[in-house]
Amino acid sequence: MIQITFLTNGNKCVSAPANSNLLRVSLREKGGIPFKCGGGLCGTCKCRVEQGIENTDAVKDKERRHLSAAEIAAGYRMACQTFVNGDVGISW
Ligand code: FES
């Protein structure tokens, strides 16, 4: 199991299986990451991986439509498109 900390939600920390989708964990555990479509279209789930960026999978093309290169370099992702394979801390 891995630990996901929702920094903007009072540092709420939950456990999840490895290779979990970030938005799905947020929904299941009431992590609080904003969302609308869940499918990589709206951009609402933009968030920042402040801790453990090395534990996230590769940035998808759908994300590049909503995030600038500078944002990606700063750790921004779209939660519905992001899978985590280790401990992370997320803000939004
Ligand atoms: S929830 Fe719409 S892009 Fe992620």
TrEMBL record:
Superkingdom, natural source: Bacteria
Residue ranges annotated for the 2Fe-2S ferredoxin-type domain, each copy included: 2-92
Sample GO molecular function, one term: 2 iron, 2 sulfur cluster binding
Gene3D superfamilies in alphabetical order: 3.10.20.30
Keywords: FAD, Flavoprotein
Xref: PROSITE patterns: 2FE2S_FER_1, 2FE2S_FER_2
Record protein name field: Ferredoxin
Organism: Paraburkholderia silvatlantica
